[in-house]
Amino acid sequence: MMLNLFQLIKEQNKQILQGELEQYKVIQQAIRRYGKDHQVLIALEEMAELTKELIEDKRQFNNRNEIIEEIADVEIMMQQLCLIFKIRKIQFLKVLF
Known about the structure:
The protein has 4 helices and no strands. With 97 residues, it is mainly alpha-helical.
């Protein structure tokens, strides 16, 4: 019973790692294609769009879906910024926690 649980966890971790590796490859391709400077500007733009949606939320707009979309966009760009500035995930997490 315990072995089956261990195998299940191992397989789930393998799938997660494969997904992260695929995501890493896509991020690398975007940086190579558009360039580091351009992607930094896009990150700033995405953060500005999130700021706009948060301000609109404070003005009583019903824009939860837009906020979710902009948070997702910022998250994608944050991953690119970590790669551009050579910030490892563990370094980032140490600052957070």
